[in-house]
Design a protein that fits this description.
76% of the residues lie in helices and 0% in strands. By secondary structure, the chain is mostly helical.
Length: 470
């Protein structure tokens, strides 16, 4: 960091306020590091159904059942993780210590794609345990602490939006590049079970190191003494749960997250099947992915658009574009041009909610504190985390179930017409329906209208002290 930058940055100084906060240049890169690592992990995990059916010889229905069954644990672990984070107070902070789980995410992922030949039952147990550890334990703590970490590391809302815009652009740009490379990597390296271990190692080793940069360089600096005293009060689990259930906006937001994750991850999970059996060439998926390279650059103007129209307005606009994108893909069928255009337009749907989710969660924290008189952070983030993983699990599970019912057999070079139709439905039609549901939820989400008054009331309550909070 240069001398000039040191003079300008006041981020780590205790006296810094939200109004005069200036971030060091390296902070945005450090913040994006763990999100990028986890984002690349999910791209690989979305290939698990294909790996299990075509490499391990497992039935698609069995794989779908395993992935869905693992979600039973998420409800318990998400509440537990949020409760633990809310009661954490260490020299590193409240959420920062749990960044260590990114290393375990990659260790378990490498093991997952190195399944031994131990029979169908043995493979099923092996896949279930590793998939559950990745999602129900490691990813749970990472997701539950993300918004809490941001709220305590950056004071200014405008700085948070800028940081998350950069974060989203970096994650999406690299994710798109990896999405383009992945089909080629599968076609060249992932032709057998051993090749998938190599792919997991190629991703896992550098990404585990990359993911720890946020923990190393980003400190929790944003808490004042009064708020710290409030946070240290041990709120009973029953009281925290009651507060969450009364927070209508976290449930609307979590519903949007579930639908978006379900739709986008389902498209990713069935993507390889679609290009292999419908388009006839897996490598064409890379060409279609190129169309989405422009999306990260939209995030460069996101802070400007956010200040002009608001983050919620952008959320609704993205949802509407998503519906249009899937409609274009359906109308064009197997035409490569309409597939490229529809994919590009459709990818806009996930930009605001995926990239700004921590901003929306912090707003929901403010609403919950305003409405219920107590501030629940970790557990509130866990609600959204749970729905995100349920959506992801439903994506893999539904793909397996539907294709299993349609008679898909990974050992066959040519699939039946029924199996091909199921792939088309999963790739285009079901995401369209989910897109419509997503748009309807954004219309009901009106927290942006209430936030100005909420912030005024909270500022007054904090000024008067915790005793006067309702």
């Amino acid at each position: 960091m240069s001398r000039k930058e040191k003079i300008k940055s006041n981020w780590a100084e205790p006296s810094t306020t939200a109004e005069n906060e200036k971030l060091p240049g390296y902070l945005k890169w450090a913040w994006a590091s763990r999100a990028l690592s986890l984002g690349l992990n999910f791209i690989l995990i979305m290939q698990l159904t294909y790996y299990c059916t075509d490499m391990l010889g497992m039935k698609a229905g069995l794989v779908g059942g395993l992935l869905l069954a693992s979600k039973i644990f998420d409800g318990v672990t998400d509440v537990f993780a949020g409760f633990v984070i809310d009661r954490t107070h260490t020299k590193w902070g409240k959420a920062r210590p749990y960044e260590i789980f990114i290393i375990f995410v990659w260790v378990f992922t490498i093991l997952l794609f190195s399944a031994p030949n131990i029979g169908t039952v043995g493979k099923a147990v092996f896949v279930f345990i590793l998939y559950t550890l990745i999602n129900s334990v490691c990813a749970t703590f990472l997701y539950a602490g993300d918004a809490v970490y941001l709220a305590r590391s950056v004071r200014s809302e405008s700085n948070r939006v800028s940081l998350m815009s950069f974060n989203g652009g970096i994650v999406m740009l690299f994710s798109l590049v990896v999405s383009m490379v992945m089909p080629l990597l599968i076609a060249k390296v992932g032709v057998n079970k051993a090749g998938w271990t190599v792919i997991a190692l190629i991703f896992g080793i550098p990404c585990a190191v990359l993911g720890m940069l946020r923990f190393i360089f980003v400190k929790e600096v944003a808490m004042d003494e009064q708020q710290e005293q409030i946070d240290r009060q041990k709120i009973p689990l029953k009281t925290s749960l009651k507060s969450i259930f009364k927070n209508k906006y976290i449930w609307l937001l979590a519903g949007m997250t579930l639908v978006v994750q379900f739709s986008s991850n389902m498209s990713t999970a069935v993507n390889t099947y679609y290009f292999k059996y419908i388009m006839g060439d897996i490598s064409l998926a890379s060409i279609v992915s190129i169309s989405s390279l422009a999306t990260p650059f939209i995030l460069l103007v996101f802070p400007i658009l956010s200040r002009k129209f608001g983050t919620v307005a952008l959320l609704r606009a993205g949802a509407l574009l998503g519906v249009c994108g899937y409609a274009i893909r359906i109308l064009g069928g197997a035409n490569l041009i309409t597939l490229i255009i529809g994919s590009f337009v459709g990818s806009s749907a996930v930009v605001p909610i995926n990239m700004m989710i921590s901003i929306y969660l912090i707003d929901c924290m403010d609403y919950g504190e305003w409405k219920n008189g107590i501030r629940v952070e970790g557990m509130l983030g866990s609600v959204n985390s749970f729905c995100s993983k349920v959506g992801s699990g439903l994506a893999s599970g539904i793909v397996g179930f539907v294709m299993g019912l349609a008679g898909y057999d990974g050992m066959l070079a040519v699939q039946s017409q029924t199996a091909n139709i199921s792939i088309i439905i999963l790739f285009n039609y079901l995401p369209l329906v989910l897109g419509i549901i997503f748009f309807a939820l954004t219309v009901l989400y009106k927290l942006d209208k209430e936030l100005p008054q909420i912030k005024i009331d909270l500022a007054q309550k904090r000024k008067n002290g915790f005793e006067n909070m309702k």
